[in-house]
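Chain A, query sequence.
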Amino acid sequence: MSSLPAVAADVASTAMTMLTADGRCLWSNPAARRLGAPLHELPLAGVAPDGSPVELPWPQSDGPTRWLEVRCHRVDHDGQLLRLYELRDVSVERRERETGRNYRWRLAHIEQLAKVGTWEWDIATDSVIWSDVLLQMFGYPPGTELDYPSYRELLHPDDVGLIERTLERALGAGGPFAYTHRMYLADRSTLRVFECYGEVFTDAVGAPVRVLGTAHDITEMRRVQDELTRLAERDPLTDLPNRRALLARLDDLLARGGGPAGALLLIDIDNFKDINDVHGHAVGDDVLRVLARLLVRHLPAGTVLGRLGGDEFAVVLPDTAAGDALTVAETLCDVTARTPVPLAGAGLRVTLSIGAAPLEPGDTRDAVLAHADLALYEAKNAGRNRARLYLPEHYRHAVQRVNVVTRVRSALHEHRMQLDAQPIIDLLTGEVVSHELLIRLRDGRQPSLAPDDFLPTVERDDLIGELDRWVVTTATSALADPAASAAGLRFDVNISARSMESPGFGDWVVARLRAVGVDADRLGLEVTETAAITNVAAVRNLAGTLRDAGCRLSLDDFGAGFGSFAYLKHLPFSTVKIAGDFVRHADRGGADPVLIDAVVRAAHGLGMRTVAESVEHAGLVPALRQLGVDSGQGFHLGRPVPLDLLLQRNRDERHTTTTVDVVVRHPDH
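Chain A, predicted structure.
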């Protein structure tokens, strides 16, 4: 047997051992002896002579299992068939293979979880490797061969140039890059939006050698963003540009300068309050929608029609002289008067009053709005159903409006201003959770003035601050009444944007509550959405002061433009009041319940309660309750009553709990 080592003389560095047919070891080379592998413990039966190598586990007593690659050769020695085994320790190689497989597995699953695919471009070979996840996002099965020309055909034609310019710049400069593009999937019919990030890697001399990139399908995210942007700039009732979008267009024209900048039309529906009172708010909403469509059809191209709020529209007319603006306004008045609004088989005649103001060099937005408002006032004062162009002499007529301020100031000092209380009802229990206090002018003079008649004028005057403090003073005094305290009455009062912005107003409210001994949580302040998004910092400061003291702060008329959604998370309101435009038809399906549901989810997620305004018929109660709205307010739930009368009732019924039945009962009960 001394000649056996010569069989493997040329592979002396390879661990080798020779066995007889019955498994006896005849010879092992030094490498095998150093390896120390106990062949009798290895399952050699699975290693076929002259076959492919087999990896076998090699248990270790003092560590993890190692692996041997075993190959078998037949050897004929002096007529005796022997088996020569080659042994190689492949533990490290196997571990590296397993690590590579695990890495690829983890990467694929991370891509799936993140909905992000990856790609790699080898510049030397001009080949692109797409991850299986990315291929599936493109609509291809895993492993599909996809070269760049085929991929380029899927790209939206308008985006090809952007992608290739971005890549060209990145290859020249090295480093990271990003772009967003549209592309069709493999079926060539589905268009998706992808957000891509990548990085160019270079060699030692700065030449690009490889590009790594990711692609994220953001189609749904982009759709939601576009919809939120649209909602933030559109009026939900008419789908016209809202106040913010319209005034932004006006600012653009004023900033442009040079030539005829254009004109502004302010449009008011004549006697719109009568339409709501006689026919109901549902018909009033229909009138607004029909008028929006009618006016758009009769405006020159390039103009912008929007809804400022309530029954007031506005039109921005670019590159329009004053005389032409008046002609457009008169046309709108004429076509509206000749086009009845369909109403239960008949037609409702609606007319408009319009004020037109040219945009003069040096004008500010406030000046143009004031001029158009003066012209609108002249149109109404002249009998309505007409248009007027602003003239400088209109200013003297504005002096008459000062009389409104004087009248309100006199009524305030002579104790002829009053507050009415309207209940806010828990839609689940029917209990009164609070009352909103509404200001009224009852001075006995003619003509009588509703809040809408005097508040807009007063809000332009410093008197509004005095009026706000009178409301808070009256409310806190009423809360301190023993009957109100015993009944646990809670009040909510509206404050103006000017008081909200007053640095000391919040501290004054807290001091007033302490002075009369009223728990702070019994008083809530309401600010409108328009005021809130106009001065976020002021709202945050006021909210901080009130919250620290225990007062409540409500965001009133939420949803007028959906603009405050972006600010809601930064403003610590306790309550969100959903605008009546969404609420009035919430039991009829359509978009309103969807939007209410979105508001409720957002508010509840931020720890805020919700109140639905304008709950004016019974069918709204179960619909709003199902949507998760906490409370409601409106004529169906309770009409306003004078505050003095409410207090007197509580004095007479000291031990009676005030509730309103809002449960929908079976007719047989």
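The chain has a mean pLDDT of 84. The two ends are 111 Å apart (CA to CA).
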